[in-house]
Amino acid sequence: MTQYTYQERFKTVQGVFDEFTNRSLFELQSRGNFDELLIPLAVGKESNVFIAKKGKDKIIVKIYNMQNTNFKRMYDYIGKDPRYEFLKKQRRQIILAWTQREYKNLIKAERAKISSPKPLAWKNNILVEEFIGNDEPAPPLKNLYPKNPKKFFELVIKEMKKSYDSGLIHGDLSSFNILNHNDKPFFIDFSQGTLVKTPNSGELLERDVRNIVGFFGKLGVEAEVEESLYKITRKK
């Protein structure tokens, strides 16, 4: 088996990421979590998402930026989560905790059998997760409307109820963060996910519901926010 140096393995991303991130990528690759990064799927201020290769399979590698990320906004969210009350307002610590929290949320979602990517690995500011799609990645709902919007909406509410019953609130649910894979919803981007017992979880859940009801309302689905909230929480 050919042995490659650290520099050779990451010649395609040298100069793109900081040394800390490159070393974390190298460690994940050395452990066999992925073979190589293939192409960027999404590039943003806070994170870059890559399609990667592992054997014959595709997976997703999400890398949070250590420099450009708005860690103060992150702290406003994560600081309310009882799992992270110990955090101090330090950039590095917050970004690493933010990535870890998304990984933990995906584990919780998988255990609750929520339609979402399976978490595969986590290291510092890098998250490795399942690829959702066939040959191409499944598109977000905003880019591919469902054939039957009413049925799709009902499936979304069902997934939200499973999440709530497991003690988890997505916190950032919208047509951007729901994939349409074979006309079934898959929830992604759990970085703002928090526990039901978090003080502002009710506010986040209601925002999620308003986003979903508003989007599907434009597709002709008649639904009320309060009624949808009741279906999820069974609370009036």
Report on the structure:
With 236 residues, the chain is an alpha+beta fold. Helix 5 crosses helix 7. 37% of the residues lie in helices and 19% in strands. The protein starts with 5 loop residues before the first helix and ends with a helix. The chain has helices at residues 6-9, 19-30, 71-78, 91-111, 149-165, 201-217, 225-233; strands at 36-43, 47-54, 57-64, 119-123, 126-130, 168-169, 178-181, 184-187, 194-195. It folds into 2 domains: 6-130, Phosphorylase Kinase, domain 1; 149-233, Transferase(Phosphotransferase), domain 1 (Orthogonal Bundle), CATH 1.10.510. Residues 1-12 have low confidence and may be disordered. It contains 7 helices and 9 strands; from the N terminus they run ααβββααββαββββαα. The strands form 3 sheets. A 5-stranded antiparallel β-sheet has the order 1-2-3-5-4, with helices on both faces. A two-stranded antiparallel ribbon has the order 6-9. Strands 7-8 form a two-stranded antiparallel ribbon.
